[in-house]
């Protein structure tokens, strides 16, 4: 019934009658359901192959709690809203159909105080940083700084049996890696179980959004996860521009696509080197680090920043691309592509790398579908989903990107997907630079009315970046919820490591290379 309602309304739901809008594809529809319909709606989504994009909590104009869940399927994006009355302290959990909802529901409990029924009650983001009865998105004042934190007695799931012992790793790691705790249950070196705990450097981003003007939020969005700055800031601007009914100049859209592919290529270059290094091939790290640096320098020369934190702005881009900058990028990208081809041959023919890559950290297509694995890791496990191809916003419809899919699901497959996607990004950028439309790169935006809703969804280098935005009084943000695909993919690593040896964990983990920062909202 819920799904049929979605199809019935997908073509004519609009902002004027309370719907969610996205500037570009896919179409977004909002639907409010009652408590006894919430789980049925989730089951309907799962039955029809929908993907869970995110789950979060918000409040309406009267201050009443609302739990929201965003799904994507063939008709577009559906955002379900469940009002939760003041007399209710909980809402029905949906992890039975979408396992990735477990941690999202725990984050909702920490931030908003709303708990899912029959769900894991352990904290996820709090880490004793504030008292258990304080909820950052509900209470106006922060807890007194003099209050002594109460350390949580966090109950990791034990594994028992002859010869089983635990290896705790982290949360503090060597070097500059962000904190995360990994609890291994092993027999000898074989891993029987891995349990993760993240969220150690909670940044208060969602609360900070509510203190900012709508026209300034893109800068904070770009800093949710710094390696995905373009994707997050574009998703924010996509939501805002949809709310403002803005017509983005063609040149601005093409420049954004160029920046997104530069970001994708830079990350793939860095990861290919790091994965090689984790397999004992330091030559790969040296060469790919050099190529990434070459790309970052060309990006700075052409667009003003090595990492494009402030490139995407409401209504377009902060700067334009000059003919000189375009020539620098064309030459640099062509040079990098030639060297990457050579390095791929070296990787493919190196017996030591093949021995470490093939079969390590395998995630079957069946398991990937069940757990909701997304992005490049999902495509390496047979999940043929890429927003640039399946729901292309401008200019990807004209660029016609090629979808890269493998089915083996191991480290070797994730490396192959990176090589193929790097080559495809090069092709797309060359096409953009040769066909970049003339005209303005930015237009002014009107400030959306209070109560307007917008959503943004962009295929970042890791996977789908989703962002939900609500307009408040006087041009301020009432609520902004950004979502990194690492929420879906971190739990999959717990399965990928089973029956592998402990020394292969860094390699398997790096082959996913998920965001710690994207969790610590």
Could you please describe the fold and organization of this structure?
The structure is a single chain. This protein is of the alpha+beta class and about 525 residues long. The protein is about 40% helix and about 15% strand. The protein has helices at about 1-10, 35-45, 100-110, 205-210, 215-220, 230-245, 250-280, 280-305, 325-350, 350-355, 365-370, 375-380, 385-390, 395-400, 410-435, 485-495, 505-510, and strands at about 30, 50-60, 65-75, 75-85, 90, 115, 165-170, 180-185, 190-195, 310-315, 315, 455-460, 465-470, 475-485. The strands form five sheets. Strands 1-4-3-2 form a four-stranded mixed beta sheet. Strand 3 (about 65-75) and strand 4 (about 75-85) form a beta hairpin. Helix 7 packs antiparallel against helix 8 (about 280-305) and helix 7 (about 250-280) packs antiparallel against helix 17. It is globular. Residues about 10-20 have low confidence and may be disordered.
